[in-house]
Amino acid sequence: MTGTHTARGVLATVQPTFMLPAVGLALAGGAHAPTVSLPLAAAHAAAVAAALYTAHVVDEYVDAHVRGEHDPVLSATAATAAAVASSLGFAALAALLWAAGTREAVAATLPLWALAVLHAPVLDTHPLSVTVDYPVGVALAFLGGYLVQTGRLAPGVAAVAVLLVVSLSGLKVSIDRLDREFDHAIGKRTFPVLLGDRASTRVGAAVHALAAALVVGFVAASVLPPLALIAGVIALADAALAVAVAPRWSVRAQMALAYPFTAALLAAQCASAGCVAAEIMGLAG
What we know:
This protein is mainly α. The protein has 2 domains: 1-152, Tetracycline Repressor, domain 2, CATH 1.10.357.140; 154-285, Up-down Bundle (Four Helix Bundle (Hemerythrin (Met), subunit A)), CATH 1.20.120. The protein contains 13 helices and no strands. The protein has helices spanning 3-12, 16-31, 38-66, 76-99, 103-119, 127-150, 155-178, 180-186, 191-195, 197-220, 229-244, 247-273, 276-281. The protein starts with a helix and ends with a helix. The mean pLDDT is 92.
């Protein structure tokens, strides 16, 4: 491969669709703290980005060069070099955060690298782990962003992280419905492949319904404020979409609703806890 082709491959493996939500939630986690150190927030967000990029280039190596699932965008050598470079960058950033005394944040961030290197060769081969690994990574990015500023975990922040895992897992089941035939052909064991389309549709809807029930439970227990119930309504809409709408349109709608779902949770927690973002916007209660 030429240098130009390699450069294009390096850029192609950034995959903003996955990168931006995780980095954005890492920054949102920091914005939920009473005060914010911008250098620490930037270092943590960069560590999240490095872990995700590692996952993407490891996926490229395994899927293209080991399993032959698609034509490579990077040579095996370039993919390996990119994975090593991003891993070293991640390690350097984690060391920086440790030296800054944010050890709780490092504890939440280190698993991101483990998820990155295990996703394609291991986690991608089991229906449960292939469904929850990205949602868990996003939640850890959010928690790490908060911990890097505070050093302690607030119950409401933990509740938001749990709800992100559950809701995004329901979305992932629906997304995997679109790829069922291809995944079956390559031996990838997602829930739609394992259970069939109809049963996996019910699984996805049930996971969204669980998210709605958890929202109600957290509000009833005063872990989250009543404003979070908006997210519960959105989760119920996701459940209905999963069973009542054709897969492609259902996935598009669920992906669109993931943003107001997350925003409702973040706004509810932020306004009730008096975070930096709420103070800036005058929402603190």
